[in-house]
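Shipment paperwork, digital attachment
Item: protein structure file
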Amino acid sequence: MKAGVGAPGRAQIPERTLRTDRWRIYPLTTGAILLFFIAYATVRIFMNKWYWAPEEHYLTPIYSPCLSESCVPGSSHFGTPLPEIPWFLPMAIITFVVLAGFRGTCYYYRKAGYRSLFMAPAACAVPEPHKKYTGESKFPLVLLNAHRYFFYGALVFAAINVYDAVLAFQGKDGGFGMGLGTVIILINLVMLTAYTLSCHACRHIVGGRLKNFSKHPLRYRYWTFVSKLNARHGQYAMISLFTVILTDAYIMAVSAGWITDLRIFN
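Attachment content:
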């Protein structure tokens, strides 16, 4: 028994879709971006080096916070409560689990992943190749409902990123300083904050359970602000991928000695 568009009683149209626009561009480009980011992040977390530039006080967000005894001197801003990490395990495992979990369960990335990687469906009015639809009610997709809990973890890491950005304003002589890396870190901080605060879970937590906004004017203001950000959540999600890569690649290059940080002041 055929299902979906091939079910009995449905119009038997031989064409996969009657759309004449370039609908393949979105799933192809989005899929390429997601796969590139996944590959880049996987390689970087297993490198376990070139994440801290001591003279410039730059710490890449992929390895922040660095909490193990394996961390290079100066990179552990919150101490080293974890023991030395074996060479075959990534030092940034906690950061990776929380932030990858936050993005992986994100409503926007779920849509992007379904359309670009699983073709479920690739676009509107384009049938998907799967014979049946079970939604996200079964394992392992039911785990995606943990998004709101990953959001709380992402808030903690957002605060840590702010702390790292403040440290990036230290000069080489210990006073106030600023370099090109500082600017890149700030741009990344803005985009990560915008992505985190525009999250659907954030919007729900701020005002989703309120029955009367007039009795909660402050939370209504927060909800209104988050709702405006939420309209561009997808844009922040994709842009922040590039800013994270740019920030990490720049700090890696400075830490490895491939380039010299362009100092703006001190």
